[in-house]
Amino acid sequence: MVHLRIALAQTNPTVGDLTGNAAKLVEWTRRAADRGAHLVVFPEMFLTGYPVEDLVLRTSFVEASIAALEELAVRLAEEGLGEIAVVAGYVGRAGLAPRVGQPKGAPLDAAALLHRGAVVARTAKHHLPNYGVFDEYRYFVRGDRLPIFRLNGADVAIAVCEDLWQEGGPVSVVAQAGAGLLVVPNASPYEKDKGDVRLDLVARRAREAGCALAYVNQVGGQDELIFDGDSVVVGPDGAPVARAARFVEELLVADVEVPAAGQDAPQGPSAFDAHDGTTITVERATLGEVRPREAPPAPPRLADRLDEPAEVYSALVLGVRDYVAKNGFRSVILGLSGGIDSALTATIAADAIGPERVHVVLMPSRHSSEHSVSDARDLVERQGLQDRLVPIEGIVNAFEKEIQLSGLSAENLQARVRGMLLMSLSNEHGHLVLTTGNKSELATGYSTLYGDSAGGYAPIKDVPKTTVWRLSRWRNEQRGAGDFLHDFGGPPIPPNSIEKEPSAELRPGQRDIDSLPAYDLLDRLLDDYVERDMGAAELIAAGHDAELVARVIRLVDVAEYKRRQYPPGPKITPKNFGRDRRLPITNRWRETTA
Amino acid sequence: MVHLRIALAQTNPTVGDLTGNAAKLVEWTRRAADRGAHLVVFPEMFLTGYPVEDLVLRTSFVEASIAALEELAVRLAEEGLGEIAVVAGYVGRAGLAPRVGQPKGAPLDAAALLHRGAVVARTAKHHLPNYGVFDEYRYFVRGDRLPIFRLNGADVAIAVCEDLWQEGGPVSVVAQAGAGLLVVPNASPYEKDKGDVRLDLVARRAREAGCALAYVNQVGGQDELIFDGDSVVVGPDGAPVARAARFVEELLVADVEVPAAGQDAPQGPSAFDAHDGTTITVERATLGEVRPREAPPAPPRLADRLDEPAEVYSALVLGVRDYVAKNGFRSVILGLSGGIDSALTATIAADAIGPERVHVVLMPSRHSSEHSVSDARDLVERQGLQDRLVPIEGIVNAFEKEIQLSGLSAENLQARVRGMLLMSLSNEHGHLVLTTGNKSELATGYSTLYGDSAGGYAPIKDVPKTTVWRLSRWRNEQRGAGDFLHDFGGPPIPPNSIEKEPSAELRPGQRDIDSLPAYDLLDRLLDDYVERDMGAAELIAAGHDAELVARVIRLVDVAEYKRRQYPPGPKITPKNFGRDRRLPITNRWRETTA
Known about the structure:
The structure is a homodimer.
Chain A: E1 2-10, H1 18-34, E2 39-41, H2 59-78, E3 85-93, E4 107-115, E5 118-124, H3 136-139, E6 145-151, E7 154-158, H4 162-165, H5 170-177, E8 181-186, H6 194-209, E9 212-217, E10 219-222, E11 225-228, E12 232-234, E13 240-243, E14 250-258, E15 270-273, E16 279-286, H7 308-326, E17 332-336, H8 340-353, E18 358-362, H9 370-383, E19 386-389, H10 393-402, H11 407-429, E20 432-433, H12 439-444, H13 465-477, H14 495-499, H15 512-515, H16 519-531, H17 536-541, H18 546-565
Parallel strand pairs in A: 1-2, 2-3, 6-16, 7-8, 8-9, 17-18, 17-20, 18-19
Antiparallel strand pairs in A: 1-14, 3-4, 4-5, 6-7, 9-12, 10-11, 12-13, 15-16
Helix pairs in contact in A: 1-2, 7-8, 7-13, 16-18
């Protein structure tokens, strides 16, 4: 057996920030070397960040990624880090002749092995996911290799992310080709309950490949996505050897014993049937003997699991924290109504960036209850937020002097005046506007376009109302500080905001229950209709009340219909008419330094 | 030779409206039968409309599509239309076992042959486009057949849309399998200058297949897309035999002489190498002799080509007309500033739905010039629009009494007050709000979020400023009425709106030129940067001034960055966190009839 110490760099890159990500790679490689690792593995496309979206279709960006990788190999050696083997993801290029429908420049979701100043091996993802949040047939062409490198006498294979999830392809070839360790860089976004699915998959693939498996995942918020980390090393039997924490950066170091490769193993490339209609070429390399730095043995590490509210709450806080930081904001602003949605949103924001950077505006109208202001003030005092009071009655009157509005139009006007006040204060002072709508409201259209939905980030848009209450109670029970918890010295949320009946307070005596079904019924039904895409017949067969099904489907479909009628404001499309370029994430990458 | 009369039903379906589309199919089949056609061909996915987006992932929708097709076969026969052969697109299902990443239910972008009450043949698109506006790896699994049916002794093959654009696949098999005619249903969106590319492609494929080719395209606006028709029949030499007009529904009828199929041609399925790593199965069927109704010969028909302004203007008018109609609106509303962008937008709207359904609001501020109101009034009088004057000064003052704003924040406030007034009037009276921004402004971020960008449809968002002027002059030169031109009795646009210097009038003496480069330089550069995705070095090499390149790239990237910071308001995502369902187009399809 060969003893290998492997380090998994569960890290948080920023999309497009080639310079910043490269600096982080050097820093974490140094930490891994100092821990005595033979090998350090970074997440998928670490050098560019993930997902890069349409930026990958710009030639100059792909060239910059490839150049950055090559510079990195040299720089690591120059900085005394040439000895440790480094596996890092980047964007490469396949060099195919252009054809209709192939992504411009034929980019690759690539990974490379760097050692002693050189790029020793390159590979690319073979299975391109194109479901859920993934659009990779739009962006990449598929890889067709499995690199296996010999490290101190043991064979180590490299495969990328989705290749683990699909049958066939490079991972299916590992057992035949023979390897003692399979390392897999990933950028796998958080979903509720995904952790166990992922671990089961990793364990199964390790058993199939007959070798240890090191799974390294990205961590951090990137636009709408949250990556949760949860990196893991399993043995050939699938049993976890080491597992990292979730939602935080961590260098997970594990000592593994790997079988020595047979002396007679073939050294040249060889082709294998990949059992998916394609052929995978195994490319072999041998590194000069790696002599790691002296360091104590890696302590056993199996991070504690989080219970469900802690998991969800951590994800929400991380999402806000990284959205603010990666988009160059220093503070946030939101409207406080005294209700539970804005109270929880403010608490998440204060936990994410500190209460001194959370600005709240109380905007009572003629229909606001007395407790709307008093509950909001209670929250401000509990948390030490930056508050401001702006009554909206004078502005609403000025509008109503010019145009006559009734019913829903008049209700919407109030929500829009509030949205405009927040946007104006954002423009004037540079705060990011957070919206406070929950998933139950948004799904059923209980929200005003350009009103309460106006803002840059919506922390609880994926949280059903019943979970809003659950998380609020859970948060009030936590004591002290942590990665995702600020120490407010007491429960941060006014109990009255949790207990009182929900109301939008846009007309006298209004209650949510006048417009929506009871939230416990509604949330169960939304889960089946929105998450699982069940049709009416299926919903009724699953036990939902037929009348409720008809009513809620109507609410959701009309809300989606209206969102379609009023899409996000004009987008820029290349090709005149007809073709839609997604907006590339250019916030950390510029064509010019001007 | 066999004489066949083929009818191409260049028609305008509505996404999700299975009932309405089926009724239209019956009506147009009757028209084709009355013209004496043996065969009528409808566009791709005609029965469901195209694109259906995430609606296709709902099981009940796919089931409804399949059921509707089968009912249609019966209904055609019952209505005395069983004799004519009908090729129609719909959504089918492949019946594959579920696996990770495969679209739920394995839907097919299918087409079927209906004859004498039965579904005689089924096929599905093999090449799934996943670039530009197409996301078909998300929605469909690929077909693997080429149906060839014998019609009065001639062999007719069916292939779908993208299969024509890609090398290999079903179309590459036609020559070997032998067919006298290839019919191709399409849903191919309009792009400037695409017409000739398409005709060249059709001609080339006809020559490769060695047979006549009938290309049927959808027509009409559907959300952001515009389909332009331009259906065509070419001979085996690629020369056009008949060609339909663009942007209008048309039944294109052509008489073609097709070689009789050999008596010894194989009748069972047979497998062919598709030259793309897959195998295509040819499935043969023979129809009983089709006896068309008596009718005079099809007159020769090669529609006149449109010159460029007429082409673009027709597309714009069709886009507005169908967006209004398909989304259930009866009228539109927009702000008139006296400038050329809102003047052209109003004119397009009046040409699309008639001036009596176009509501305009003049919203002068303290910074508005005198001519802003007088030019707007001139436009109203030339066209007979429904106008209203709402000065915004009182409302702006009410805001500024509550919060202090300076510079850009104060300018944005004015734009937002106008946006809110339009949205409020829309809510109160049911008009669709049109925005008036052009592509040059939007690309460079010369626009206010929730202000002038607030609205449901943006008619000129794809039109650069220099083209806005060109189209305005062109429109003023047109006389009389047409499919896309209302007869206003004179030039509809005030010459002063065309000639005067552009200004946003949000501060005293403001001019566009103070913030933006001259529009002729800007538009040429935007074309290379936005449409062609050229990087800075490429732009300079292409002859653009280096300083201008740096400035414009910065403007565009910052604008895109800001659009990313403030995305469209919260979306509904299934899977809690991490996964994004696109909003399905449910405006014409409901789970319930409630």
